[in-house]
Inverse folding.
């Protein structure tokens, strides 16, 4: 696993924002977006080559 400092600047800024300033509502919203994005990317990178485009709905849960 990478060290924190090895990740892109945007990722580090996001993590620092969550740790220092984000409200619980913001964290919940980010968690949904992040989870969906990671799942989509993992599916795209799947060894079977089955790429699927998933559009973010923008809905809050």
């Amino acid at each position: 696993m990478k060290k924190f400092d090895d990740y892109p600047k945007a990722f580090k800024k996001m993590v620092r924002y969550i740790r220092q300033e984000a409200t619980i509502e913001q964290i919940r919203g980010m968690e949904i977006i992040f989870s969906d994005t990671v799942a989509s990317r993992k599916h795209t990178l799947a060894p079977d080559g089955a790429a699927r485009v998933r559009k973010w709905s923008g809905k809050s849960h």
In short: The chain has a mean pLDDT of 85. The chain has one domain: 9-61. The two ends are 31 Å apart (CA to CA). The chain is about 55% helix and 0% strand.
